[in-house]
Design brief:
By secondary structure, the chain is an alpha/beta fold. It is built from 9 helices and 8 strands. It has a single domain, classed as Alpha-Beta Barrel (TIM Barrel). The chain has an 8-stranded parallel beta barrel. Helix 6 packs parallel to helix 7 and helix 8 crosses helix 9.
């Protein structure tokens, strides 16, 4: 099972391209008519009420999966420590039902690998699929990979020019975020780059979630469709 989509959907930059002629209230539904997974980013910045999650479920067709970004209160403010209460509040707010996919925990670039702190954090996570995106070179170590494998947590394979791309598969599923290879959040992925990512994903031979985060110039949805075509995953409708 390979799911390919975009990181977020509320981008004015897409208005004259992918969303041409589509009213803003229909943006999520329009995107979900073409890709089968979307990463929710707003949950990182502010707590989202259950009503928002229920609305997003209602706006998308059956078979849609949402990945959800964990709150920055946990990752950036508390830096994974003493996180019991914010974790409880976050998971209590989720109301995605059958459309719930992995939860992704994006770490700040200044956070170095600390085995004890990460071990404590991982033990707090409820059952379900979780993925961790570190942005510091110190995570390129077997101690980190072994810890994730022990908890069946996926290391996020990220492609970006400003933080390390650490390629490791540590769970029974894989998670990829493509932020733009040359310019962060901007660069379009060309045919050769998409071919390379398709080959890597085939080689992992497991459930995989892929999100294009090169959103600022509108490349993300088109790159998602192009990668899906290479991997033979269902495309809901053609552009």
């Amino acid at each position: 099972m390979i799911r390919i989509g975009t990181s977020g959907w509320r981008y004015p930059e897409w208005r004259d391209g992918f969303y041409r002629g589509v009213p803003q209230r229909r943006w999520l539904g329009h995107l979900a008519e073409h890709v089968d997974t979307v990463e929710i980013n707003s949950s990182f910045y502010h707590p989202q009420p259950r009503t928002n999650y229920l609305k997003w479920v209602a706006e998308t067709p059956p078979g849609t999966t949402f990945s959800v970004k964990g709150p920055k209160l946990v990752t950036h403010v508390k830096r994974l420590r003493d996180a019991e209460e914010p974790l409880r509040a976050f998971f209590d707010s989720l109301a995605l039902g059958a459309k719930q996919g992995p939860v992704i925990w994006q770490l700040p670039p200044s956070l170095r690998f600390d085995r004890a702190a990460l071990q404590d954090f991982l033990t707090l996570l409820p059952s379900g699929r979780h993925a961790l995106e570190p942005r510091h070179e110190s995570f390129r170590t077997d101690a980190y990979f072994d810890l994730l494998r022990a908890h069946n947590v996926a290391h996020v394979v990220s492609d970006a020019p400003t933080f390390p791309c650490i390629e490791a598969v540590t769970a029974d599923f894989a998670y990829v975020r493509l932020h733009g290879h040359d310019e962060l959040y901007i660069s379009n992925y060309d045919d050769e780059q998409l071919d390379e990512w398709a080959d890597k994903i085939r080689g992992w031979d497991r459930d995989t979630y892929v999100y294009f985060d090169n959103t600022m110039h509108g490349a993300a949805p088109y790159n998602a469709l192009a990668l899906a075509q290479r991997l033979g995953t269902p495309i809901r409708s053609h552009m």
